[in-house]
Amino acid sequence: MLVGSTIFADKTFTLVEARYLLLFTDLDRCLGYSWGAAALVTFYRYLGDASMYSCKQLGGYPTLLQCWIHEYFPTVGKRGENWKPADNCGLPRAMRWSYRQGVLKVDDLRPILDELTPADVIWRPFEDHRAWRLFDEICLYKGCLKWGETVVPYMPDRCLRQFGYRQYVSSPPLDCMMATDIDVDWISYHQSVIAVIGSSTVATTPSEVEDGYLEWYYCVSHPRLVPPHRDDPREVPVPVYDAGPSDPDWVRVSTLIHRYLRQVNAEEEDPHFANLFEALHISRSH
Questions:
Q1: Aminotransferase-like plant mobile domain spans which residues (predicted)?
Q2: Among 19, 124, 171, 267, which residue's Cβ finds the most Cβ atoms within 10 Å?
């Protein structure tokens, strides 16, 4: 059940690969396995497959992706909160959310994703958990991860904002086919950590980036999911965002206010909008 239907679930639905039996020849050793890393490798591989147009199903541990979306994008999707993570540090993080059937389809979600701003993202959702579990700098290891015969790239320099650093233009993708000795790279991970954060500085606001990053990103990525209503290619303007509050608690407050205003269809010029943010700034000054 654990291996075949949960963390290493594949697309056979009812079959489990025989190679997993070797993991349980000595049950006393199971607690020492890095189950999280193995689940991450497996899921990365399936996400790579799902990025192909011909792929119709996603394998792996989808609860991991679902909870990640809930943590970072609180305005996307329909769900409720059972409890605050800081008050229930002994329970699995996934139990924080209670799932309810939504009515939005893929076509409905695309414009919602296109309209996201930095204020709609919780860049560092696990800060309230640091009192129980400190951040481990091994998370900034850059290299290849391996589980069995599966090798995938792990590149934290592409999402530095979730680690509290200013995002810069990342290096080209890793070629896992060229990986020689992953175990040695993993043991000497401090070298890659220095390389990852050496080109950045600590962010003063959660969504802060280095100069030129947004211009680069909008040139190499697909910034919009909804295509324009015309055949001519268009130039995508690089948005200029307000820096916003640096305190994570005030970022959450700002996000909740924006969410409420969208629900009541309020515009920024609306007096209710101005009153809410005036009260927010007065509270911050006190």
A1: 1-217
A2: 124
